[in-house]
């Protein structure tokens, strides 16, 4: 069911990224609603904002989880068989993209079996100057970088690669050290995230081999691991890593890393 106003409402936004926001929310609504259920999309002008609501009568969200649904990798038990092993990264990306456009997103549910509603609020475009300001804010870093994410967990690799792509970078994935050594010489990344605990060739050995290659002497290598003790960081440094990051990487941490790289290359 769709309920939208007959008069157009304009917002200053990146069309592709807003499409990602609403497709993600609609896909979630369909995923957690049984066949024959109802998904409703409505749009309303509320003062200086437009409110877009996506509401379903599906599985719902337990009340204690509502404040956490937008946190990275937070599992929300809405019948785990429907999650299909996903990492719950989608809603975190949704929030970040909406905030980049100066808006907000909120989740509502009365609990299990009671359906859920996600409301996205965006500022209405009031002038051409405001349109340009919002578009510039939403465009992310202007420096395009090639980023390779190497992790044997395919969900984790895809999810992490999605974040720099949304910031305007180019990203590829590989799923073990040997595959990384095949992909990297062709892709020539500026930055490589390497999971440490991988089959066939672990992150430390992969880093050492990359550093032996002519192009690999200057690439930025970041170790990805669940461990952040001093000994773990020492091993990463010895293997040739520039940085050591503990999973899961938050968007703020990634932005800080990319900003520091841009400053070094300036």
Describe this structure in words.
This protein has 266 residues and is an alpha/beta fold. The protein has two domains: 2-137, Histidine kinase-like ATPase, C-terminal domain (Heat Shock Protein 90); 146-265, Response regulator (Rossmann fold, 3-Layer(aba) Sandwich). The protein is 38% helix and 21% strand. The protein has nine helices and ten strands. The protein has a five-stranded mixed beta sheet with strand order 1-2-3-5-4, covered by helices on one side. A five-stranded parallel beta sheet has the order 7-6-8-9-10, sandwiched between helices. α5 links the parallel β6 and β7. α1 (15-31) runs antiparallel to α3 and α6 runs parallel beside α7 (203-212). The chain is elongated and about 60 Å long. The termini are far apart.
The Rg value, from CA coordinates, equals 21 Å
- Output the structural class: alpha/beta
Order of SSEs: EHEEHHEEHEHEHEHEHEH
Q: What is the CATH class name of the largest domain? A: Alpha Beta
Strand composition percent: 15-25%
- Arithmetic mean of pLDDT: 84
Query: Largest sheet, order of strands side by side?
Result: 1-2-3-5-4
Number of strands: 10
Q: Based on CA inertia axes, which overall geometry fits?
A: elongated
Looking at the structure, the CATH topology of the largest domain is Heat Shock Protein 90
Give start-end ranges of low-pLDDT stretches: 83-87, 137-142
Can you tell me the CATH superfamily of the largest domain?
Answer: Histidine kinase-like ATPase, C-terminal domain
Q: Helical element count?
A: 9
> Largest sheet, if any?
5 strands, mixed
Tally of separate domains: 2
The percentage helix is 25-40%
Cα(first) to Cα(last) distance is: 51 Å
| CATH-level-2 architecture of the largest domain | 2-Layer Sandwich
